[in-house]
Write a structure and sequence with these properties.
With 172 residues, the protein is mainly β. It has 1 helix and 14 strands. The longest helix has 7 residues.
Length: 172
């Protein structure tokens, strides 16, 4: 029964005064509610030397994650780019937030995409997939960025498709 749920341990005091395991109970995984998301379109990411950018923490496996909840942090990180005569429309930060998932620079063509976002109470679980490709002659920084509703969300967990936790960040 691998990855079928969780176990809760019941610990008690044994007759000789030591703590000991009394019982293991199966606790099923919580039901997650799907949350609609959409990709950030018609914006490109910029690196400004004079701007600290979003508060992203470097994570294991060469990945950084960020949650953008303010207009200024978004403007410091992304610039609009009109496409086919359509102007870029920034997220409404009173109702939405932006999630970014960025890998380190690589010379392999790598696709990064959000598969789903789900809610468990005040936690938003974002599942991100990385598909490494073939070696290429230039370097790139694989990344994915989506817009999600922010109402009542206190934490965002970034997970891989197998459910492994990549990061857990507090929403500001």
């Amino acid at each position: 029964m691998r990855n079928q749920g969780s176990l809760a341990a019941e610990i008690g005091i044994l007759p000789d005064g030591r703590a000991g395991l009394i019982n293991l109970k199966n606790v099923p995984k919580a039901d997650l509610t799907p949350v609609a998301f959409r990709p950030l379109e018609r914006f490109f990411r910029v690196q400004k030397n004079d701007s600290p950018g979003p508060s992203a923490m470097n994570r294991p496996f060469g990945v950084s994650t960020a949650i953008l909840t303010e207009t200024q942090a978004f403007a410091d990180t992304y610039q609009p780019a009109a496409l086919n005569g359509q102007n870029a429309v920034a997220p409404d930060f009173s109702k939405e937030m932006v999630l970014t998932y960025t890998q380190n620079e690589t010379n392999f063509s790598t696709e990064v995409r959000f598969l789903k976002t789900e809610r468990d109470g005040r936690v938003l679980v974002a599942t991100v997939e990385e598909k490494p490709g073939v070696k290429q002659s230039h370097k790139s920084i694989p990344q994915a960025t989506v817009i999600v509703p922010r109402a009542g969300i206190e934490f965002v967990e970034f997970r891989n498709p197998n459910g492994m936790l990549i990061s857990r960040d507090k929403v500001n």
